[in-house]
Write a structure and sequence with these properties.
mainly alpha, 192 residues
C-alpha cells in the first residue's frame, strides 16, 4: 500500500526535496573557485618583427595569462538561518510522511475490518437463505400433500424472498467494503 498511495508518494517527494534544499544551503558555505585564462596572438604583417629582448613590439607577439580566485561569502552567519530553515522543512516533511503512513495504516486496517465483518455477515445470510430455501421446499411438498394451507406456503415464500434480498444486500455491502479496501491500499486486491 505504501508504494501505490499518492499521499505517501507526495510525502516521500517532499522529503527528497527538503534533503536537496539542505544540501544546496550547505554548499553555500563553500567559496566559489574562479579560474580565468587568456591567450593571445598579435601579428601585423606590415611591421618588422623585433627580435631584441630590450625592445617592446606592440604589434607582433604572443601573450597569455591566467588568474585563480576564491570568491567567499561575505558572512557565514547569514547562512545559518537558511540552513536551519531547510533542516526544519526536512523535519516537517518527515513528520508529514509519518502522518501519511499512520493515516494509511488506519484506513487500511479499518477497511480490512469492514471486509472481514461483511464476509461473516454474507456467510450467515447464505446459511439463512439455504435454510429458508429448504423450509420452502418442505412447505411446498406439504402443501401438495394437503398437510398445510396456503397461508403457510405464502409465509415460507415471503421468508425465502426476504432471505434472498438480505443475501443480495450483504453481497453488495461486501463489494462496497472491498472497493473501499482497494482504495485504501491504492490498488486491486489479489484475494481475500
Amino acid at each position: 500500500a505504501r508504494r501505490r498511495r499518492p499521499d505517501i508518494q507526495m510525502s516521500l517527494a517532499g522529503i527528497r526535496a527538503a534533503r536537496a534544499l539542505v544540501r544546496a544551503r550547505q554548499t553555500e558555505y563553500v567559496p566559489d573557485l574562479a579560474i580565468a585564462g587568456y591567450y593571445g596572438f598579435r601579428g601585423a604583417p606590415g611591421t618588422d618583427d623585433q627580435n631584441s629582448p630590450f625592445v617592446e613590439d606592440p604589434w607582433n607577439g604572443v601573450g597569455f595569462g591566467y588568474a585563480l580566485g576564491l570568491v567567499g561569502r561575505p558572512s557565514p552567519a547569514r547562512h545559518v538561518g537558511p540552513i536551519g530553515r531547510a533542516r526544519a522543512d526536512l523535519s516537517y516533511a518527515r513528520a508529514m510522511n509519518r502522518l501519511a503512513l499512520g493515516a494509511a495504516a488506519f484506513e487500511v486496517e479499518s477497511a480490512y475490518t469492514n471486509v472481514v465483518e461483511d464476509l461473516i455477515v454474507l456467510r450467515a445470510r447464505a446459511r439463512t437463505l439455504e435454510m429458508a430455501r429448504s423450509q420452502l421446499e418442505r412447505i411446498r411438498s406439504d402443501y401438495r400433500a394437503g398437510r398445510v394451507g396456503g397461508r403457510d406456503l405464502t409465509s415460507a415464500v415471503r421468508d425465502w424472498v426476504n432471505a434472498e434480498l438480505a443475501n443480495v444486500r450483504a453481497s453488495g455491502q461486501l463489494l462496497r467494503s472491498r472497493s473501499s479496501l482497494e482504495i485504501a491500499t491504492g490498488g486491486p486486491l489479489a484475494s481475500l
